[in-house]
Amino acid sequence: MLRYIAIRLVSAVVMALLASLVIFLISNFVPGDPVLAQLGDILASDPAVVAQWRAKWGLDLPLWDRYWIFLQGLLHGDLGTSIATRRPVLNDIAQFAPATIELATVSFMLTLVIGVPLGVAAAVWRDSIVDAVARAVSLLGVSAPTFWLAFIVLAIFYGWLDWAPGPGRLDPIAFAPEGGTGFFLWDSARAGDWETFHDALAHLVLPSIVLAAATLGLVTRTTRAAMLECLHQDYVRVARAKGLGERAVVLRHALRNALVPVVTLGGLAYANLLTGAVMTETIFAWPGLGRYTFSSAAALDFPAIMGITLIVSATYLIVNLLVDLSYALLDPRVRR
Amino acid sequence: MSTPVLDVRELVTVFHTDAGPVRAVDGVSFSVAKGETLGIVGESGSGKSVTAQSLMRLLDPPARIEGGQVLFEGRDVLSMSQRELTAWRGASAAMVFQDSLTGLNPVLRILRQVTEHVVAHGRMDKRAARRHGIDLLRRMGVASPERAAASFPHQFSGGMRQRVMIAMGMANDPTLLIADEPTTALDVTIQAQILDLLANLNESFGTAIVLISHDLGVIGTICKRIVVMYAGEVVEEGPTAAVLDDPRHPYAWALANAVPRLDAPVADRLPGIEGMPPDPLDMPKGCRFTPRCPWRISRCGDERPPLAEVAPGRKARCWVTADGRSLPPPSIPAHAKPPIPSTAEPLLVAQDLVKHFPLPKKSFFGHREVVHAVNGVSLHIMPGERLGIVGESGCGKSTLARLVTRLHAPDAGHIRFDGQDIATLSGEELRLLRPRLQMVFQDPYASLNPRMRIGDILAEPLLVHGRVKNAAEARERVGGLLDMVGLNKAWGERFPHEFSGGQRQRISIARALALEPALIVADEPVSALDVNVQAQVLNLMLDLCERMGLSYLFIAHDLAVVRAFCDRVAVMYLGRIVEEAPAAELFAHPSHPYTVSLLSAVPEPGRQRIVLSGEPPSTLRLPQGCAFQARCPVARPICAEPPPLTEIAPGHRVLCHAPGSLKPLQGSP
């Protein structure tokens, strides 16, 4: 098993490098020039300024030299300097990532905690009220556009009912908790600052629901379908014939088999939550990676784009590895 | 008389389908006394499995039990609450299912599956249950039970899994064990082991057994009494031997006679009854067997006969035999196959064929394992001859079929077909060969494309090989082909799912015949079919053989079928032919110990059996010496040497150091 993990990790590194190369080439061949985006019309019309600026950022070097420099930097843990923010890309990412990870993780937990039991219940009590609710949730979750859902929940729960706080991670007048990891829940809980913890949690409720909606729909749907299939398997009938109670039949015999497709989906969903929060982050003024990605792309900020690509692909690969390992945990037939 | 263990009265189970209610079990009554063995026999769709699941109340909607009573030791099962039902199931009454691969949960360890209901029913704590479980596995004949207990189902062979299933059923020492087709998926020598095990449990623990099977032979070896079901009804009930010898219902008659038996004379054709079971949505008003019954009288179509006593202890649902008369025995015409001229040039000669399949490497530096499927097989087929290949799963018989038809290329050896060496042909040459050499596959469901009309399936080879000029001509030929295999000419417009298994197999045969081949290689063509349909398809294949001078290479695991169909038979074990002889000679004087045991293992009522222990060894290692030595009851030291091929009678060759040393038991053929 350890060998298997080692092989997978090595291949993950290779895959991440390949992804960075592809992104590097694509972003250099798309029409558009960072010069214009960064210097503005007036300065960009002065060839001397442009040449100096290009030399400063290494944009006058051949393509391969630039990629080589990027790789060398990578070896030293240096992702380069962002053209737009003039700060090391790694620092930027370290600043923006925690907000996103916190949001995505809470969304992911919501997805699992609501989606899996709802799907199981819908399959066990098929065609009942529970099943109807599950179907409504998955249909709404999958088909409601994020921006629409975001505005609706903001309008209702913040604007009208005032049950939830508005956009942002904390109250405008509050300070970020001490601890410095950038994960507000973690930092405040460790510092024993329960007031801030509560504030941060309250601010997470609406955006995480909005972000979770689509994946929640998929997870509910998949769990229901997989459970229905497993409940019709012979081994479930055998379990009933053995005189096991319905609880043991459903939870011990059917659910574990049904979890395999759910885990696949869950892994992909988590990776998606991490990288696909642009819309939610924008509407909820969430200072996360999604917004950083958007602004870097708009500014043709090559080093930042490369850095984000690497982080995103590494995330996908690690999540995939975890998914594969949990297969082996769930299904002995996959083990070697 | 004491209370019976199980008393079923007028049980009715209905499936509420979109097309209307289907009365799958329609007024079934029978009872099982303490320690008794009862067999329920019938073809697929007769309602026997639904009956079993109704008894345990295991059916899901849309099936519903709508009438009757099921009394277990006097308690009404149908009115038990969910709690009572859970306490009763698996404790007093247990069930063993057909498919041990899907019946065991793939993600739970064996021990847990065998003992979880012992704990759930509060019989033992986990520690005691563990010892009990391992002990059970040992009693069921599972090799190294401690290790087995910690394993997962996929690590076992089919026979071992079935033992685990039975251990599971026996875990709480039930009064009644219902076994639904427990040996259908198994090889004949393994089937013999499992049947022995069930008989043993009945004897030593007094467990009453209800055995459900489509195979009269299986039922006959275990059950003292038998219930025959047809179209949801019990049509005959009585002592097994009496029903087999003197069936009083025409359907039971057809069942008893359509099965080719090893101990009966070989008939020219298998007696079977034409037609199919009635449409369950539209049952005939009178007797349900009327449309197919050769003895029907006017009353049969109008009035439904009752299940009435026709002799002491025997009941039948038939107007014809209601007065106590017997049905006439089948007429067996003398068996007269035209002799194959020995001077003729063989149609197919295969020499020293070898095929090995390398497995994917387990690790980068690991040793690559190889499945030794076929290890040097030589055979020949004369024009018009029917050669049978028999053997258990994994013996390489299907690979041999694929080599001969060149679906696989052999690793070594020669194949001459019709004077041409075809072992190394490729591409276009191979395509030109195809029309002369056709194949019929086992699974009539998987081998017909479900999205193509029958007419198109049959026309395709004709068009591909340029045998017809246009679609109109193809349609005409297709009509002729359907007619030839006994189907309605107009059915070309239909899709495969609209046909029954037997009809589909007829279509597969029509497809093979379309290009007028010289040799048809049929890989288990009837093993997926009910006995009656099997008889019909075999008769069709015999007709075609005689009318068109076809040759067959007929591959099967069922020895009686091979005996009824083939001129010459070769027995395979672990990729080699261990014995080969004309059919009559082979079945009269089997000489390889494997052949003797294989013949003996075939379940037929009232016969002693030699039960081989163990299972065929892995094909991953090429055996040194005789491949059979590990299981051979008469193995001796010399068997470690490769055995010689000895011709002990004209055309009768045996690969053995001591042919004839294992004698068939009394009563076997």
Automatic annotation (TrEMBL), chain B:
InterPro entries: AAA+_ATPase (IPR003593), ABC_Ni/Peptide_Import (IPR050388), ABC_transporter-like_ATP-bd (IPR003439), ABC_transporter-like_CS (IPR017871), Oligopep_ABC_C (IPR013563), P-loop_NTPase (IPR027417)
Entry GO CC: plasma membrane
Residue ranges occupied by any ABC transporter domain in the UniProt entry: 6-256, 348-599
Alphabetical UniProt keywords: ATP-binding, Cell membrane, Membrane, Nucleotide-binding, Transport
Location within or outside the cell: Cell inner membrane
Keyword Plastid attached: no
GO process terms (BP): peptide transport; transmembrane transport
Membrane topology of the entry: Peripheral membrane protein
UniProt GO MF annotations: ATP binding; ATP hydrolysis activity
Transferase keyword on record: no
Similarity remark: Belongs to the ABC transporter superfamily.
Protein name (record): Oligopeptide ABC transporter ATP-binding protein OppF
Native source organism of the sequence: Neoroseomonas lacus
